[in-house]
## 1
Amino acid sequence: MEVVAKLKFARLSPQKCRLVCDQVRGLNIDRALDVLKFSRKRSAAVIKKVLDSAIANAEHNNGADIDELKIAKVFADQGPTYKRMQAKAKGRGSRILKPTCHITVVLSDEE
């Protein structure tokens, strides 16, 4: 059985978010929550919220045993980029890119 939780349009860089995703992929739930709780990265808090949502989905919708769950897949895809302008010298403007990402967490109880 697989359970999915997604967060779309998170205001995080997908490249930075993938660093945290790689740390928790394949871990059981208790270990992954500890890694995310003590990580100093900004994206760790967001991924922890998505993981909590996936755990709640597994427990409520499927009646799964939380102790047997592990993270089967976790990935961060690139979302749309917000484009902004910032004033520069001599009346010019420069572009500021604000990336977004879509975070997906898949839990499974199979080995």
## 2
Amino acid sequence: MTDVLPDLLLNDDELAVRDKVRKFVAERVSSDLIRRMDRDEVVYPREFVAELGAENLLGLRFPNEYGGRSLSWRAEIAALEEVGVLGTSLGCAFSMPSIVGEALWRFGTEYQKQEYLVPMLRGELISAEALTEPRGGSDFFGATTRAELVGDTFTIRGQKRFVVGASGADFFIVYCNTNPDGDPHNRLSLILVEADRPGMEVGYLYQLMGTRGGGTGRVVFRDVKVPAGNLIGELNSGAEIFNTMMVPERLTSAAASLGIARAALEVAARYSNRRRAFGEPIRHFQGVSFKVADAITALDAARALTLAAGTAADAGAVTTRRLVSEAKKHATDTAWEVTNLAMQIMGGIGYTNVFPIERLVRDARLTQIWTGTNEIMSLLIQHEYYRELLGDATQARQVEADAAEADAEDERVYEDDDMWIKGW
């Protein structure tokens, strides 16, 4: 295992937690769990999350007082790369407390932090995020799930799909339309909904190509009633929360992808040193060794960019949004490229389940789609670049809304300037 780049870029505390997570992955996670999850014999890996929580390895960035370790984004990225070698399902289970925790920590009340954030970081509660709807993938601001506030109670109607932990979560954070006549950026609210609320229904569990065993499905809200105190942040402030949460969503996608790529590369490289053809190891042939060189270079570049984005996020740099989008795009594209290179090096045996390469290929494919497709990342990157270059605030005003609409199922071209500015 080669760790030259992380050893150069991480401090002692970050390396220590990285090594602790690496040991956890090696000694506490069984191959049988991974196989059973890939066979859809596990609904959700609750025991895995509980063990991480018991070791104080969840939500590393959050303050000690809430159960975190007050560490940096670089520490979390390094830790998640280690979990990422296990695949996207366990990587997502590890990162969900960081994603959901961001909303609770930054926008939640003290009561919400004590009742949900603290036990979540102990691994005692499983959380999930309900964002995507059937009508449009990345069309976040077009959400039609409604939450009507009457008195001190919200009534929620609608559905969300592709919810990791739809089956298995104890509570969801749900983006709801609470102001249907408002401007797109003042239309949504984030509401915490416990899984045992009457009217909550897991409508469908998906049969996925990869990323199995995470309870991914559709959640239906049939007049689900929750108290107004379950509102996270201010009413109709969902856009602000969403934009904040895109940092952990996309950085965790990038970090886990590094682990996927590294695992595939190491398996293929070790195999190429053992497999012989024409009397010598196949690593001696440039057709193989050059693929390894390309994979090493791409992985090191993706790791450096992801750690740089994490450093920017820690510092609150103005370039954070762009760098996080770059990291998500580049790292997930790299995972797809490297896993496929690894399969090519392995040859036919890589296409079987004798080795984990075919599973890693299946897992890597999703990373280019979830938490904002890589086409959305390209839109965000160029928008942010022009904003930084030209100082034109209007370029970034509706970036996420414009990007979401472009990727929605009813994709259409923006030609009218007024429509573009308003993000219709």
## 3
Amino acid sequence: MPESKTAIVTDSTCDLPEVYVSQYNITVVPTYVVWGDEVMRDRIDIQPVEFYERLASDPVYPSSSCPTPDDFVQTFTRLKSEGAEDILVLTVSGAMSATYDTAIQASSMVDIPVHVVDSRGPTMTLGWQVLAAARALEAGKPVKAVLDRIDQVRKKLVQLVFMDSIEYLYKGGRIGMATNLLSSALKIKPVIQINHETGLVESLLKVRTRTKAVEAFYQEFLKRIGDGPVKRVAVLHGNVSDEAQELIERVKKDLNPTEIISNITGPVLGINTGPRALALCGYSEE
């Protein structure tokens, strides 16, 4: 089968392990971490473990910035020079970031067809759609069929996130002051879900202890994942690899997934979820 002339581009919030990026020749455009006067490229100039360690001790709180139009234009131009005939771009939710709009803007500035897809979510919500696209292209599917496949996967996805504290959502500007004060007073451990229609974060559960919250988060994911024979599950974590490994073992036992992926959540998303967060993201199908 001839090699696909369609290049795949995504942004660094996808949290795909490097082995998949290399295997499928995926181009990752980094988002930026802004820490005081420093501007660093996500997973290039600052790695996740370093980020979480610094987050715990640095009095300055970081922020993030999406790739620029020029970042995308340079990427598209390079891929064309390397033989790409068209480009498929998948980004983090447009409701969470300007990355999607920036990629759309850049697509009008190059003389190669560019198809930009809003994944309607972060981390492996984006990652699973990127992998589905790469695998469809590898199987020789035309771009229209690949876009349909992405849509099919998105509609099946379930993503839940447990956070050790709501403090980081507040610091990252994702919730209002009143919610932060209420949550701090109650000492709750929030569990949120990603709405894959709106691309927005929604509150799901509020539990007072970490142990109970993690258990509730896990059981809720089991209820939602579906009963198709093919199950793909990702376990993400905010620098708590031991707890992530425990989740991996439970997922293997309870779901017997066709594929399981684990990774540490990158700095850009960690700004909002904080250290010791856990996430489960996956889908099932025939």
